[in-house]
Amino acid sequence: MMHIHRYYDVDIVNGPGTRCTLFVAGCEHQCRGCYNQSTWRLDSGVPFTLAMEEQLIADLKDRRIPRQGLSLSGGDPLHPHNVPHIRRLVKRVRRECPDKDIWLWTGYQLAELSAAQREVIAEIDVLIDGRFIEAEKDARLLWRGSRNQKIWYLRQPQGEHTDQHSAASDAQQGYPQRASRECPVQHQ
Ligand code: SF4
Fold first, then answer.
1. What EC number(s) would the UniProt record show (predicted)?
2. Of the chain's two ends, which shows fewer C-beta atoms within 10 Å, N or C?
3. Domain at 38, CATH number
4. What is the distance between the alpha carbons of residues 161 and 151, in angstroms, rounded to a whole number?
5. Considering the domain boundaries, does residue 180 fall inside one?
6. What is the pLDDT of residues 95-105, one digit of tens each?
7. Could you list the residue range(s) of the whole structural domain that residue 27 is in?
8. What residue ranges line ligand 1, CB within 6 angstroms?
9. Residue 139: inside a domain, yes or no?
10. Model confidence over 10-68: pLDDT tens digits?
């Protein structure tokens, strides 16, 4: 069973557009400067139940408040314990909500992901990777807290895998400017 800390059915802060956002429990990175250590433990928060999952899917399909997509954050959605649960969830979202995009924040780096973690990445649109490094903190960054973190647009039309973007290039791609974050996994 995966635990979660928060779920926002309507969120305009964690990713582009109006979104559903899920903050999961469990993180093993122990970044210096982490200001939400309460998310580290896998058994913190509350169990993510099937009823919660059904609600999330219903929210993504809700036409009264159109959602652009789903944001997965934490904690770390790619913590090994969370991977099978997140993989199942993203596959379901792909299947049942094919017009929605999926963004995922992790403290791991793309290059170091395990085969199981990569199965999750294969289903998502955008990955923001890397631990939060206090010495590289930069408030001007879009979607990230520190300069070492990168935004990977994994499903660009040309099939390009794009490296780190400046706020300017993000704006050129039509992604609105947002406040930056302390952590790749978007604490509240
Ligand atoms: S990845 Fe985020 S939650 Fe995990 S230790 Fe680092 S700052 Fe904290």
1. 1.97.1.-
2. N
3. 3.20.20.70
4. 10
5. no
6. 999 999 999 99
7. 3-172
8. 27, 29-31, 34, 36, 39, 76, 107, 131-132, 183-185
9. yes
10. 999 999 999 999 999 999 999 998 877 899 999 999 999 999 999 999 999 999 999 99
- Global pTM value: 0.86
CA 156 to chain centre: 17
Query: C-alpha angle 124/60/40, rounded to 5°?
Result: 60
* Residue minimizing CA distance to atom 1 of ligand 1: 107
Q: Considering the domain boundaries, does residue 179 fall inside one? A: no
